[in-house]
Amino acid sequence: MKILFKLVCAVALLGTLALTLAAPADAAGATPSASASASAQAKPTIVLVHGAFAESASWNDVARALRAQHYPVIAAANPLRGLKYDADHVGALLASIQGPVVLVGHSYGGSVISAAAAGKANVRALVYVAAFAPEAGEAAVDISARFPGSTLDATLLPPVVQADGAKDLYIQQDKFPAQYAADVAPALANLMALTQRPIAAGAFSESVPAVAWKNVPSWFIYGDADKCIPPSALGYMATRAKSVKTVVVKGGSHAVMASNPKQVASLIVEAANAIGAAARP
């Protein structure tokens, strides 16, 4: 019996030694998982805010690229009910995050992040992805009126009237790929059409009294074939916000985060690195 007990102990010891040897340590002596955890803690949290006719999964490939570099990522659910309501919703999320944040918005989500980040000291950078960046007191419809060329209206279904009188807008599914995601793989573009979330029509007419890009550095990326927000409008907003860097994707559609996720993720990482460098003495 004693011999059996000794054999069991010997096997257990050998197993422990084998596991220890199989887990390579980095230069600091930490295992890869511990090192990755420490790296993530040292990086800002990336908050991704989708826009109209989209949902959080529209960021999937961007989020995957950021997570591969150990960034903490939150793909926020944007209610799409009204600019103030949506900004308050995202603002509450921002207030719950400890440490610096890089806040990213797509499409109408740009209006939301502009308002949500106002007064939030932990938001250190803004990234606009084919997104509105309105001035204080300016609505999305004001920008669209100043820069005609969007073909979105012709692709919308008749509004769906809710019990509270809100009018929900959807893009016709058969027209969604060409209008919204012309450079996205057809299978994914069709899936995006099926899973699109409606926006309350009134959201496009709302404005807010303060916008964060006045005080927070911003980065812009958009496609030169965007049919929802004219590229001329996107370029104007980038210049007005004194964009640190503006990337124009040749042939890029409105869904540039789905068609060119690596370029979008790369710009977000640039913004994250920039605020990290600014924080170092």
Give a verbal description of the structure.
With 281 residues, this protein is α/β, with parallel strands linked by helices. It is built from eleven helices and nine strands. The chain has helices spanning 2-22, 32-42, 60-68, 83-95, 109-116, 140-146, 176-180, 186-195, 231-240, 256-259, 261-279, and strands spanning 45-49, 73-76, 101-106, 123-129, 160-161, 167-169, 199-200, 218-223, 245-249. The strands form two sheets. Strands 2-1-3-4-8-9 form a six-stranded parallel sheet, sandwiched between helices. A hairpin with a 5-residue loop joins strand 5 and strand 6 (167-169). Helix 3 (60-68) packs across helix 11 and helix 4 (83-95) packs across helix 5. The protein starts with a helix and ends with a helix.
Keywords:
281 residues, alpha/beta, 6-stranded parallel β-sheet, 3-stranded antiparallel β-sheet, 11 helices, 14% strand, disordered N terminus
Overall geometric form: globular
Order of helices and strands: HHEHEHEHEHEEHHEEHEHH
How confident overall, as mean pLDDT?
A: 88
Low-confidence runs of at least 5 consecutive residues: 1-39
Share of helix, binned: 40-55%
Strand order of the largest sheet: 2-1-3-4-8-9
Largest sheet: 6 strands, parallel
- The N- and C-terminal alpha carbons lie at a distance of 65 Å
Secondary-structure content class = alpha/beta
Question: How many beta-strand runs?
Answer: 9
What count of helical segments does DSSP give? Answer: 11
